[in-house]
Backbone:
């Protein structure tokens, strides 16, 4: 069985600030999001610019906080997603302007 060590570390970590930084890395370019599903199965970029993020990036602090972080970096929930209270994936698209504060 093949294990993704980065994903496993995020899922088992008790360091919420580190996990939050891993999510921020997706938005600020430190974690590359390739076209199509990555081998890790945790990030997906659609041709129309939307991205899907697996819950290993935000399970510890919740989808609401993940959406706040996304908004700080100029992303917003994609309305076509039908995001549930506890989504397994967040689907985001670029917003017009990043929100600060």
Residues:
């Amino acid at each position: 069985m093949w294990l993704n060590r980065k994903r496993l570390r995020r899922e088992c970590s008790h360091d919420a600030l580190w996990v939050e930084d891993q999510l921020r890395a997706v938005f600020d370019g430190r974690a590359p999001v390739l076209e199509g599903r990555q081998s890790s199965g945790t990030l997906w970029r659609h041709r129309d610019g939307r991205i899907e993020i697996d819950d290993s990036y935000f399970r510890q602090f919740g989808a609401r906080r993940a959406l706040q972080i996304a908004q700080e970096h100029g992303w917003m929930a994609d309305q076509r997603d039908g995001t549930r209270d506890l989504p397994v994936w967040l689907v985001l698209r670029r917003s017009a302007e990043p929100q600060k504060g």
Remarks:
- The helical segments are 5-12, 16-28, 63-72.
- Strands lie at 43-45, 51-54, 75-77, 89-94.
- The chain has a mean pLDDT of 78.
